UniProtKB/TrEMBL annotation:
Residues 1-20 are annotated as: Disordered. It comes from the Bacteria. Residues 12-113 form the DUF559 domain. Residues 10-20 have a biased composition (Polar residues). This is DUF559 domain-containing protein.
Length: 139
């Protein structure tokens, strides 16, 4: 088995910095994801995935969860999602306000994904479903 190449220093430093800060929505979701609180699934917070840092990552599901605030750019989010999908990862996106106002629905969407892992990443959209959007579109 080949060892993983070392992570770029810039990506590691960015991840460390992001772990010490964070939005209210990031803290709220992390409270529910940490320590295997959500159905025994192990999530990592601000996980380096060069050249990106994923808000949350579950290796068991190959699932990246991204929280988008008002500062997010739809085109950049779409490019990022496509790059992660090319690595064989699934991406769920939620708006910060969804996490704060509809925490239960967000957690249920994550659980539904975990239980029905056969769902195609392209079917995960914020419009019309509880899942996050690969294109960063909102409700």
């Amino acid at each position: 088995m080949n060892p993983k190449p070392p992570l770029p220093t810039h990506t590691l430093n960015t991840a460390k910095s992001l772990r010490t800060s964070g939005t209210d929505a990031e803290h709220e979701l992390w409270y529910h994801l940490r320590a295997r609180r959500l159905d025994g699934l192990k999530f990592r917070r601000q996980h380096p995935m060069p050249p990106y840092v994923a808000d949350y990552y579950c290796d068991e599901l190959k699932l990246v969860i991204e929280l988008d605030g008002s500062q997010h750019d739809e085109q950049s989010d779409s490019i990022r999602t496509q790059a992660l999908q090319r690595q064989g990862l699934f991406v769920l996106r939620f708006w910060d306000n969804q996490v704060l106002q509809e925490t239960g629905a967000v957690l249920e969407a994550i659980l539904n994904f975990a239980r029905h892992r056969t769902i195609s990443p392209t079917t995960l959209t914020r419009k019309g479903t509880p899942y996050g959007s690969p294109t960063g579109e909102g409700l």
